[in-house]
Design goal:
Rossmann fold, 29% helix, 30% strand
Length: 291
């Protein structure tokens, strides 16, 4: 009959329409997935990635974290209170060194704890004469140095920059406003300085003071103060996946254990790892740790 409609679905005769939480068809239902109670309890404000045993042990001891695996993956977590701020921290150790394993560790933290910020914490190689072993560098910008083109005339390197979000960059700046730059830290009988820096990162271990990589990085940006093998993986993982979890950003904290040459030893590594963990502890209240 003219002017009458038999409706078994949806009719819109003009104008805007918003449909949500809707199922269409006989017997259709809407299922809302909510985080389980266990997942809600696991939620962390800050995620931490470490690589070496000495780095993991330093973070665990400094933040007093407890081991609590999730789905067979080893994690350590706990709550720290500093400057009147209670922050839940979850830490994991990557399976191995390098960018790829760091990206996997990022994904494990993202899925299990959904942290607002992820910090890569541990040791790195000094790259400038004004930074000493035991000092700590905080990086919010990473330059990946392993992209290159091999030609008959030699290797052409192509650096790639990744920078964390402005909100994390401002948090680090606020830390240095309060502590000065370089910041002066005293931990027991140990004294060290903390600086902000750009970090050079790639899969190659640099153990030669005259290596082509060192020369390239100095030419690329003379503000690169520290190098490591993982920051590029963290920065790339956040670039590709961070927005999916509404994460705010990343930060790299590296204690200097050597000068990217053959002079390396375990004593200096443990000291550098302890100092980096202490800087993490003090920096945490400044980070935008709530999504």
């Amino acid at each position: 009959m003219t002017g009458q409609f038999k409706n078994s679905g949806i009719i819109n005769q003009g104008g805007p329409m918003t449909i949500s939480g809707t199922a269409i068809g006989d017997g259709a239902t809407v299922v809302h997935h909510h985080p389980t109670e266990a997942t809600a309890r696991r939620r962390a404000n800050v995620g931490v990635i470490t690589i070496k045993e000495s780095e993991a042990r330093a973070v665990i001891d400094t933040l007093k974290l407890e081991r609590a695996p999730v789905n067979g993956i080893p994690f350590w977590h706990g709550t720290i209170n500093l400057r009147g701020v209670a922050t839940r921290v979850a830490m994991t150790r990557s399976l191995s060194q390098g960018q790829r394993s760091t990206m996997a560790a990022f994904e494990n933290l993202r899925e299990a704890f959904r942290p607002a910020v992820i910090a890569l914490v541990g040791i790195g190689g000094g790259f400038q004469p004004d930074i000493s072993t035991g000092d700590v560098a905080i990086a919010t910008r990473a330059v990946y140095y392993d992209l290159r083109k091999e030609t008959a005339d030699g290797t052409q390197r192509r650096g790639e920059d990744r920078e964390t979000s402005a909100i994390v960059g401002n948090a680090v700046n606020s830390f240095f406003v309060d502590y000065g730059e370089p910041a002066h830290f005293v931990k027991g009988e140990d004294e060290f300085h903390v600086i902000s820096c750009i970090i050079g990162t790639g899969d190659a271990v640099i153990a030669d003071a005259e290596s082509e990589i060192r020369k390239y990085l100095k030419h690329y940006n003379d503000k690169i103060s520290v190098v490591d093998m993982e920051a590029g993986g963290l920065a790339q993982a956040f670039h590709e996946r961070g927005s999916l979890a509404q994460m705010h950003g990343w930060v790299v904290i590296r204690g200097v254990s050597d000068y990217s040459n053959k002079e390396k030893n375990d004593v200096l590594q443990k000291r550098a790892a302890r100092n980096a963990a202490e800087v993490l502890r003090v920096l945490i209240p400044y980070l935008p740790s709530h999504t």
